[in-house]
């Protein structure tokens, strides 16, 4: 096993300090003159104290497939966690998705076809999830697939025809979960923190929940109750590494970190990789999957496939270390979710570079492959109850905002 020292030329402190953190509040904490949260069109249709069975659906930036998970929740507490599956994309649909990245207008034929085919594939994921489970969900939370994310332009685009999904399943579907936040000037991402906070009730804090997907994001959960949150995307996660490996080997990922572990981190290039204005920005902040592509391509070109994998793995870890410097207080531990936790090269590097224990979320009984899908189920329930899903501390929302639209079957 190689040891990757934290590069000497890299500062752990970002160029700019974060502003004083504002605690996250509930809807009731919104200023009196705040306009009503705009996105939720639904009103609760049953006793708010009752729980719902909700399916959550996530198609993540790594484009590996659709995660589906069932939970029981009232939108505040998690009464139960049920089965979860991943329905991988076939190569054709994945290639179509990839070809549409960056698109903001889906009104043409291929845009509509993609929305329809994504909805049908998500319906298939729900049916697969429920095979053998003698339950009918009350609600579905549907993220869709992000094609473009540009919060300063108040634009975030997720493909997937939610109305069609609702008709296919005969179940109300909550979608458009990022829209209200972005429209109000928030980052529109990350959204999972509200679920991380609900899951973490009862755990010792401060705690950091780190998701390493195509992009990586962290949720810091403070000791001052369930609303004490700070969240942001730390930087690229597995995305650039996946792309690098695909380009050089035709494989979709660096399985078990084998390439990275056989390579050597090019420290000089790592320092250049980390010389990006994103790391100096205050949190909350978020990324489009492609935001680092041009920056990275110019720096890693010419490396061997193994050294490139080692250097890009180190970059994902270094971005987390930079993010750690933005946290209000050091977390007692880091719980890692998302596919990156399966990569020992990344996990070992994080464990060496962070100043607190690092463990996969399974250490506290969560399922790191299902967690994002569960989060969208939880948000769907919150939408129905008009409870906020984003907060000043998680997306920079001006006040706690309800998010999502309900599509009836
Ligand atoms: N055994 C493994 N070894 C190395 N990497 C792995 C392994 N399993 C999964 N991964 C990585 O995890 C990625 C998938 O992670 P995940 O499903 O959390 O991403 P995502 O949800 O699509 O992304 P995001 O959270 O950005 O939306 C794969 O593309 C791969 O890079
Ligand atoms: C715009 C968008 O789709 N962002 C994703 C992406 O993937 C990880 C990270 O970047 C996170 O900010 C977000 O997804 C998770 C599910 C979230 O919103 O919490």
TrEMBL record:
<keyword id="KW-0418">Kinase</keyword>
<dbReference type="GO" id="GO:0006040">
    <property type="term" value="P:amino sugar metabolic process"/>
</dbReference>
<protein>
    <recommendedName>
        <fullName>Anhydro-N-acetylmuramic acid kinase</fullName>
        <ecNumber>2.7.1.170</ecNumber>
    </recommendedName>
</protein>
<dbReference type="GO" id="GO:0016301">
    <property type="term" value="F:kinase activity"/>
</dbReference>
<keyword id="KW-0547">Nucleotide-binding</keyword>
<dbReference type="Pfam" id="PF03702">
    <property type="entry name" value="AnmK"/>
</dbReference>
<dbReference type="GO" id="GO:0005524">
    <property type="term" value="F:ATP binding"/>
</dbReference>
<keyword id="KW-0119">Carbohydrate metabolism</keyword>
<comment type="function">
    <text>Catalyzes the specific phosphorylation of 1,6-anhydro-N-acetylmuramic acid (anhMurNAc) with the simultaneous cleavage of the 1,6-anhydro ring, generating MurNAc-6-P. Is required for the utilization of anhMurNAc either imported from the medium or derived from its own cell wall murein, and thus plays a role in cell wall recycling.</text>
</comment>
<comment type="pathway">
    <text>Amino-sugar metabolism; 1,6-anhydro-N-acetylmuramate degradation.</text>
</comment>
<dbReference type="InterPro" id="IPR005338">
    <property type="entry name" value="Anhydro_N_Ac-Mur_kinase"/>
</dbReference>
<comment type="similarity">
    <text>Belongs to the anhydro-N-acetylmuramic acid kinase family.</text>
</comment>
<comment type="pathway">
    <text>Cell wall biogenesis; peptidoglycan recycling.</text>
</comment>
<dbReference type="GO" id="GO:0016773">
    <property type="term" value="F:phosphotransferase activity, alcohol group as acceptor"/>
</dbReference>
<feature type="binding site">
    <location>
        <begin position="60"/>
        <end position="67"/>
    </location>
    <ligand>
        <name>ATP</name>
    </ligand>
</feature>
<dbReference type="GO" id="GO:0097175">
    <property type="term" value="P:1,6-anhydro-N-acetyl-beta-muramic acid catabolic process"/>
</dbReference>
<feature type="region of interest" description="Disordered">
    <location>
        <begin position="1"/>
        <end position="45"/>
    </location>
</feature>
<keyword id="KW-0067">ATP-binding</keyword>
<dbReference type="GO" id="GO:0009254">
    <property type="term" value="P:peptidoglycan turnover"/>
</dbReference>
<dbReference type="InterPro" id="IPR043129">
    <property type="entry name" value="ATPase_NBD"/>
</dbReference>
<feature type="compositionally biased region" description="Basic residues">
    <location>
        <begin position="14"/>
        <end position="24"/>
    </location>
</feature>
<keyword id="KW-0808">Transferase</keyword>
